[in-house]
Description:
Layout: H1 7-18, H2 27-39, E1 45-49, H3 55-66, E2 72-75, H4 95-104, E3 111-114, H5 118-122, E4 129-134, H6 140-150, E5 154-162, H7 170-181, E6 186-192, E7 195-200, H8 209-220, H9 223-226, H10 234-245, H11 254-260
Parallel strand pairs: 1-2, 1-4, 2-3, 4-5
Antiparallel strand pairs: 5-7, 6-7
Amino acid sequence: MPLPQNFDAIIQEAWERARTVPGYIGELEFRALGLLAAGAPQQGVTVEIGSFKGKSTVALASIAARCGLGPVISIDPHTAPSVTDPMLGGQPSSFDDFLTTLRTTGIESQVEVHRAPSKDVAVGWNRPIRLLWIDGDHTYAGAKQDFELFSPHLVEGAIVALHDTLHEFEGPIRVFVEDILGSDRFGPAGFFHTIGWAQYRPNDGAHFRSERQRLGRRAAKLIPFVARGREVKGLSKLHYKIRRALVPHAVLSPAEWSARITPGLP
C-alpha cells in the first residue's frame, strides 16, 4: 500500500518507544523494518517469527496501529532451544520481558501472542499474510522450515523479510538466495543493512528475474563461508567481510522504496 504521508513521524514515535528495549535490531534496521511493514498490502496479517523481548514487535505493531492494519502475530516459544537463539543471560525465558514491552509501549492490543514453535502455530494455518518477518531459528533447517510453512499464505504484493541475511548465519542467506532470489514468484528484492526483503509477485515476478539474479550472484558468494553452521574467523572472516561489502545493502529512503515496489496490490 502507499506509504502514509507522516511515515517519518510514525516510525520516529515507534523508535522512541523501543530504543531501550533489549534486542538485536538497531535503529537503522528498525526503521527499515517499519518501511517494509508500511509498504505491504493492507489485506492480511503481519507474521513475526522470533520476537525475543519485543523490539521489532514495537516497529510492526506501531505501523499496524497507526495505519489501521490487522494484528501482528508474534510467534516465539521464548526459550533457547537453538544454537542461534539470543542468549538469555541466565533467564529461563524472555517471555516476561516480552509481555512487559507490549504493555509499556502501548501495543498490547495490536499483538496476538503465540508462545509456541512456529511449526506448531502453522498447523491448520489459513490466514492471509501481508508481511512475513522471519527472525527465529537461524540454522538452515530452521529458516527453511519457517519460510516453507508460511510463504504459501502470502497475498499478492506481500513482503517477505529475513533478518541477519548478511550476518554469519547459514539459514537466512541460503533461504533468501535459493528460495527467494531464485524464484519467479518474487519481484523486486534487496537488502536493507542485514535484512533481505522481496515482494511476492507470482504473476509477474519473471520480469524481475535478471535483477534478482544479479543480486543473487553476489549474495551467493557468502554462503560457502557459513555453510553447515561453520564459524567464520581469522582470514576467512576478512574475506567474508570483503565479499559482504560488495553486496548492495543500503537502506532506501521512503521515496526510493515506494518507487521500487508496486503499491496497491490486493
